[in-house]
Amino acid sequence: MGRFVGRIPQGGDIMEGNRLAEATGFAPVSGGGFTLRPPHLGDVVPYTTFLADPDVRVWLDDVAQRPMSTGRVESLLLREGWCLWSIEAGGAFVGVTSLYEPDLARGMARYSIVIGDKTRWNRGLGTAVTGSVLAHAFTELGLRKIVSDYLVPNIASARMHERCGFVVEGRFREDAWRQGRWVDRIWLSMLRSDWERHSMRAASAPAARDRP
Ligand SMILES: CC(C)(COP(=O)(O)OP(=O)(O)OC[C@H]1O[C@@H](n2cnc3c(N)ncnc32)[C@H](O)[C@@H]1OP(=O)(O)O)[C@@H](O)C(=O)NCCC(=O)NCCS
Predict the structure, then answer these.
(1) Structural domain includes residue 5
(2) Domain of 44: which CATH number?
(3) How many domains does the chain have?
(4) Prediction pTM value
(5) Which atom in ligand 1 lies closest to the alpha carbon of residue 121?
(6) Has residue 4 been placed in a domain?
(7) How far is the CA of 158 from the centre of ligand 1 (A)?
(8) Given 1, 15, 147, 192, which is the most exposed site by the fewest CB atoms within 10 A?
(9) Using a 6 Å cutoff on CB, does residue 121 contact ligand 1?
């Protein structure tokens, strides 16, 4: 079973659940104060607790607005994922990030991230993790487009996507009911070419600052 290196995976390569994740470079990724590793059973209870916190779940999809049992979370983490990683920071499990709904014929997948440990918010972790997953998607998996979205009041997510170089494709007006009102959803994407440009800019930024 090979890894998808440097090419767009073809539909025939699709496998079930984490078998594909194992085949697509599922090795732990470390750096920048965090580790991305395969989820395990010990993550189920803490992740269920994270999702029960209204602050964590409020801007997630409708399905996350209802209480989730540990059985449902276990299935999400351990059986249903395509490329799904647990995020560890400071030696502790703090959340989950994933590439999901792969459309391998078109070289596309969707992106998601949930940092459930609120003490970790607004310290650059989301931006750093997203950068690592994008690098994996474009270089290891050979994908050509990653799509994502956020609900407009989710300023942290807006800022994180912007800093990672996502490009806004559109606005779905009044797309979700939250906190007693309808809120808009922003749809974004990143092409491999966007990512290459963004990475080059990011790599050259410190050098530019160093100039007299
Ligand atoms: C969205 C999420 C992944 C962001 O992770 P994070 O580690 O906090 O993100 P970062 O620190 O890299 O970036 C967040 C940015 O938003 C900014 N920000 C957050 N709230 C803000 C506010 N109310 N006003 C202005 N800026 C704000 C932060 O200051 C930071 O920007 P900066 O580094 O330029 O100062 C995290 O908050 C989370 O998991 N939330 C719950 C689940 C969720 O909403 N997931 C995303 C669904 S689309």
Answers:
(1) no
(2) 3.40.630.30
(3) 1
(4) 0.88
(5) 8
(6) no
(7) 7
(8) 1
(9) yes
Residue whose CA is at the smallest distance from ligand 1 atom 29:
122
187-205 pLDDT per residue, tens: 999 999 999 998 888 777 7
Length of the chain: 212
Helix (H, G, I), strand (E, B) or coil at 111: strand
What's the 3-state SS for 137-178?
HHHHCCCCEEEEEEECCCHHHHHHHHHHCCEEEEEEEEEEEE
The Å distance, Cα 96 to ligand 1 centre, comes to 15
2 is a domain residue: no
Residues 6+ apart with CB under 8 A from 10: 104, 105
Ligand 1 pocket, residue 59 CB under 6 Å: yes
Let me know if residue 212 belongs to a domain. no
**pLDDT(121) > 50:** yes
Host domain of residue 52: 11-202
Q: How far is the CA of 104 from the centre of ligand 1 (A)?
A: 30
- The side-by-side arrangement of strands in the sheet containing 108-115 is 29-31, 34-37, 83-89, 92-103, 108-115, 145-151, 181-191, 167-178
Would you say 68 and 83 are in contact if contact means Cβ atoms under 8 Å apart? Answer: no
Residue 29 β-bridge partners: 36
Q: What are the Cα distances from residue 159, in Å, to 77, 126, 144, 154?
A: 26, 10, 23, 9
Q: Which two tokens stand for residue 116?
A: 């459930």
